[in-house]
Amino acid sequence: MEKEQSEYGLNENRRKFLSKVSLGIGSVALGSLLIPDLFKGKSGEDALMDALPHFAPKAKRVIYLFQNGAPSQLESFDYKPLLNQQIGQELPDSIRAGQRLTGMTSGQSSFPLVGSFFKFNQYGESRAWISEMFPHTAKVVDDICIIKSMHTEAINHDPALTFFQTGAQVGNRPSMGAWLSYGLGSENSNLPSFCVLLSRGKGNGQGVYSKLWTNGFLDSVHQGVQFSASEDPVLYLKDPKGMNREDRRRMLDKLAEMNNLNFETFGDPEIQAKVQQYEMAFRMQTAVPEVTDIKSEPDSIIKMYGPDCLIPGTYAANCLLARKLSENGVRFVQLYHQGWDAHDNLPNQFIGQAKDVDQASAALITDLKQRGLLDETLVIWGGEFGRTNYCQGKIQVDNYGRDHHPRAFSIWMAGGGVKSGMVYGETDEFGYNIVENPVHVHDFQATILHLMGIDHERLTYKHLGRRYRLTDVHGKVVKDILV
Amino acid sequence: MPQNQKIFAILENSLIALNGLILILVIGQDHIQLPSFLEVVGRMHPLLLHFPIVMLFLAALLFWFPDALGANSKVAMKWLLLSALFFTGITVLAGLFLSAEVGYVKEDFENHQWTGLLVFWLGTLWYWFWVKEKLSIAKGLSLMVLVLVLATGHFGASLTHGEDFLFAPLKSVIDMPQVSFEEALAFEHVIKPILDQKCISCHKAGKIKGELRMDEVQYILKGGEMGPAIDMEDLENSQILIHILYDLEDEYHMPPKGKPQLSETELALIQNWILDSAYFEKKLTSYSPESEFIALAKEKFASQESKTYSFKAANAKTIAELNNDYRKVVATYPNSPGLRVTFFGKNQFDPNTIDELKKVKDQVVELNFQNMPMKDGHLQKIANFPNLEVLNLNFTGMEGNNLGELKNLKNLTHLSLSGNPLSESAFESLKDFSQLKNLYVWTNKNADAIAALKSQLPETNIEGGFQDNGTLYQLNAPQIEFEKSIFTDKAEVTLKHPIGTVKIFYTLDNTIPDSSNNQVYSGPISLDKNTTLRARAFADGWLGSTEKQAVFFRSKIQPDSYKLTFPPSESYKGKGALTLFDLEKGDEDFGKGKWLGFQDTPFEIQMNFKSPQSIQNIAFSTLAAEGSHIFPPSKVEVWIKTQNTDWKLIDTQKPEQPTSNRDRMLQMYETNINQSDVTAIKAKLTPINPLPKWHPGAGGKGWVFIDEILIN
Question: Does residue B160 carry a pLDDT above 70?
Fold first, then answer.
């Protein structure tokens, strides 16, 4: 009897327990039907990422030809004949309106206007004014959109450059390429989604540092990968001498085996991420040489970019490489060409710099166009700010310098959903202030993200307790220049 | 118990009272005049209604399962049902008050009203039959009451939350009108969707706040208590415009604070549309492309992606399975059923894998094969994707002989064939591709064929691309690659050039390579003596490159011991005397530690051989960089000692001194020995002193730099 009683008690308890538990499990299961991510441990950011792109993108890839050191808008795309007429005359205070000066001209007692040493002509259907220093760009003028009304907040190179690339003047935020990699991932899983190429002209140069292509607080896979001009375009990618591909494969397999054992013990997803990264590096060992090899390029392509492109590390070579990387699915290719910082001897330096970049930049447009890729690739050309309409130092018609000018400068964009053959924005006749359609750096960034199918207000990352954006709390898409 | 009975009696009585009151109010509904305190009661309707709903359901439970609470069930049931009916009555009453106040249109809330009333009346009957123990009738009534409660709730929700509130989530996706920008009307497809979303829930038949309806154009023009919503006579003072532009905090701001607000774009759209004459029937395409309204509307259309497909999306699992490291299969835009397929990695490419895409053959709208090796025969596989729109075959190497296979792809609008050696028949078959909007056929060779095609396909944008205008550029010099320029036995040298089609000419006899004297490079060159290799690159359509030179030295014999008489300068001491025999040539950058420099003392060295050596010559590799005060030595002297003879000076050279600055250059001073029993060699290179008058450092001391001693 006692036995039966205890058994009954047990049964009763077990039954009750099971029924309660099953009811509990059932209700959780029901709830989970409505919250699909309940057990996936997804963060808000992941959920956000699932929704990307936010809308149909116009551009799939970006090639950013950064003209580091700040090319003068007054010798390139912003034609101001008044400055030639009033050469040597003082910049009116009403125009300068208290604009701060850099340390380099703050000691200067007079600000004599100086006009472009180079002639301007109108080109294409847009009748855009372009200086004689850019004959090749002039030929593709109907494929580009010149923005003459860019303005920025910084007045010195490093903060201005950092501002353009990361949306903040201090250097701890992710670069634009890293944001896009984070938002859209890689198109080609055998190559990094953000690549960086450096070149240097003969003009006065300003440094570029790896903080410009940093992932900031984003995952390190989004960092820009610098391709060097040497025989090893990507450092540490080649197997050491004496190691063949089979050995490497066996070594990676064994390593993955051990890593997976570790994963089974600790369950840290970072371990699997690591295994994936080793695998990607292994695939890059064949993908990178395939992409960087220019032997497969027809002669006519070489001629189009100019023979400089055969010399590794030149701007022309980088433009060609940029096309090859981009066409192979690299989301963001960032070029920097140094040497535009002409505080003195501007005409002379400008000739050299323009010669370095004009032909290859235009060739990149033509090359993408003839492959049918221009529509889906956004190309950007421009520096971190503009240059003053007055002379820095001693003034001569054929020898003068210009200081930094953040209030108005020119850039151009092409392809990828940007209107072609357009000139946007206008400056006053002194070329000093914007009088129509100003475009702030944050607006520019918002527009790039928009073209890539991203709402710049919704691409965020939570770090140190707050959410960050490329455009901080600013930025308006420049709709007027969109197709 | 008696207390229960008392309360039951009170409740039963009030039930009768409520019935009477409600009956009266329903009959005289149109004539109710409410004191303001009863308006408050009326507005409590949305709160009160929750009580009877819950209680009626609980009562029904007890009614159907009378033993649930044991002996007390009956009393509990009575409690529940009576109070449920009491609250039903109060709720109905409040509802009637409310209906008298707000401007609901009769037909819309009638359903709600009558179902509500029926709940109350049938509920009362249910109670009555139950008390009289006519259980079967009571059962039927209870079921009817429950159904009516649900119906009343649904109709009520439709009143406050909008028509078909309940089923809206199932419908909204399907009901979105899909029109292209070209077909769209300004009001119907741009403005109305905004009003529908943000305004209409309070301004429509059934809920006419401010006496304004916005669900039909006629009502919008008629307007509400403030005047026409859109005033065609005075557009700027249209009430819509005035109200949406009020500050958010303003009590007249629309939509009211707390409701979904107009976005910046929506506000700008409405504003621009009204100020631009508020055309109701105008097509978007008839607007001036300059107008602000069109710019904004275009934007809206672009972000909605007007393109739609008639086929269904493929199974997500199928798509995931088709993706791998070298083939990406992704939706063309968010939620698109169309797929874009891109192949990467030409070494991994296998054309037969195209067949794996058969599972999604209807969904594939973009195919990208650029740089993948393809044969003309593979085009047949591509013809199997009926909905293909974009096809990229750039640089696949195909001649396009059977491009005709693709002719029947009626949706194909973009075809890229750039960089392929297209045959004549390829151009012939392209004439039939009138469906194409964009055709990319750049090859740099078929200019005539491209021009002809342009006239045959006038509707197609044909991109011929860059055509070489015959400008001759100079090739850059080839690269010379080797391990060490000084070797003991043999050296292997490789020549390279970045352009695949060049020929590299080279000579080994120190003459300039040209068409007369050259050898054409075909593989690594083996050297076994001192050699100057000179190379140039040539290719059709290019000017020959500049020359590239490299000098190779053989150093067969190494001394067994050696000693410097004077140490080198502290700044340029390299690895000491070892530097001279490490077979590593220094380059023109003399600061890198591969050079020894001497200024105050001459370079003097004695080299000994354990066993007598047969030596032909000895050479000293030096640097001349006058700009850096590094000159040829003023004197080079060499002594030897043999088994039989003592030290003997065998050579004295006085190198020619420059008369102006030159580019940096490597210089070799060689002395012939031709003795078979040499046991030691001594050499001395004396720096120039003083520097010549033309030099900026005239009068000072010159330097001697030496990096290697070669003995053969």
Answer: yes
- Does any domain span residue B569? yes
Burial class (CB in 10 A: 0-12, 13-18, 19+), B3: exposed
Give per-residue pLDDT as tens, B584-636.
888 778 888 889 999 999 999 999 999 898 998 899 999 988 888 999 999 99
* Same domain membership, residue B419 and residue B326: yes
- Asked if A371 reaches chain B (Cβ–Cβ under 8 Å), the answer is yes
pLDDT score recorded for residue B208: 80
Q: Which of B342, B468, B500 sits opposite A296 (nearest CB)?
A: B500
Q: How distant is the Cα of A173 from the closest Cα of chain B, in angstroms?
A: 28
A303 touches chain B (CB under 8 A): yes
Determine what percent of chain B is predicted with pLDDT higher than 90.
Answer: 34
**Is the Cβ of A48 closer than 8 Å to some Cβ of chain B?**
no
pLDDT of res. A36: 46
Asked if residue B468 belongs to a domain, the reply is no
Whether B161 and B181 map to the same domain: the answer is no
Q: Which residues contact B209 (CB under 8 A, 6 or more apart)?
A: B103, B202, B203
Is the backbone peptide bond immediately before A112 cis, with ω within 30 degrees of 0? Answer: no
> Is residue B115 assigned to a domain?
yes
Claim to verify: residue B37 and residue B125 sit in the same structural domain? yes
Interacting residues of A257 by C-beta distance below 8 A, sequence separation 6+? none
ipTM of the complex model: 0.84
Q: Measured between CB atoms, which of B302, B325, B392 is closest to A189?
A: B325
* Structure confidence at residue A206 (pLDDT): 87
Asked if B581 and B681 sit in the same domain, the reply is yes
Number of Cβ pairs < 8 A linking chain A and chain B: 120
Query: Under an 8 A CB cutoff, do A283 and B333 touch?
Result: no
- Alpha-carbon gap, residue B267 to B296, rounded angstroms: 10
| pTM for the whole structure | 0.69
Q: Which residue in the block uniquely carries the two structure tokens 């190691």?
A: A243
How near does any CA of chain A get to the CA of B659, in Å? 30
Domain containing residue B479: 473-553
Last residue of a domain, one of B411, B435, B463: B463
The closest CB to that of A300, out of B326, B414, B466, belongs to B466
Asked if residue B423 and residue B320 are part of one domain, the reply reads yes
Distance CA B424, CA B400 (A): 9
Distance separating alpha carbons of residues B223 and B214, to the nearest angstrom: 8
Minimum mean pLDDT range among A325-339, B265-279, B357-371 = B265-279
B84-143 per-position pLDDT tens digit: 999 999 999 898 888 877 556 556 678 889 999 999 999 999 999 998 888 889 999 999
By the CB < 8 Å criterion, does B371 face chain A? yes
Report the pLDDT averaged over residues A363-372: 95
**How far from the centroid of its chain's Cα atoms is residue B424's Cα?**
38
Amino acid sitting at position B551? V
Residues in A touching B421 (Cβ below 8 Å): none
Picking from A190, A303, A371, the nearest residue to B468 by CB comes out as A303
If we measure between CA atoms, which residue out of A279, A396, A293 comes closest to residue A345? A396
Residues whose CB falls within 8 Å of the CB of residue A153, separated by 6 or more in sequence, listed in order: A163, A169, A406, A441
Q: Do B444 and A189 touch (CB under 8 A)?
A: no
Question: By the 8 A CB rule, do B685 and B635 touch?
Answer: yes
The Cα–Cα gap between A430 and A427 comes to 8
Q: Which residue of B has its CA nearest to A324?
A: B371
Instruction: Name residues whose C-beta falls within 8 Å of residue A358's C-beta, 6 or more positions apart in sequence.
Output: A133, A134, A135, A136, A137
Point out the residue among A290, A298, A302 whose CB comes nearest to the CB of B347.
Answer: A290
Mean per-residue pLDDT, B491-514: 87
Domain check: are B337 and B419 in the same one? yes
- A376 to chain B, any CB pair closer than 8 A? The answer is no
- For residue B463, the distance in angstroms to the closest alpha carbon of chain A comes to 6
Report how many domains make up chain B.
5
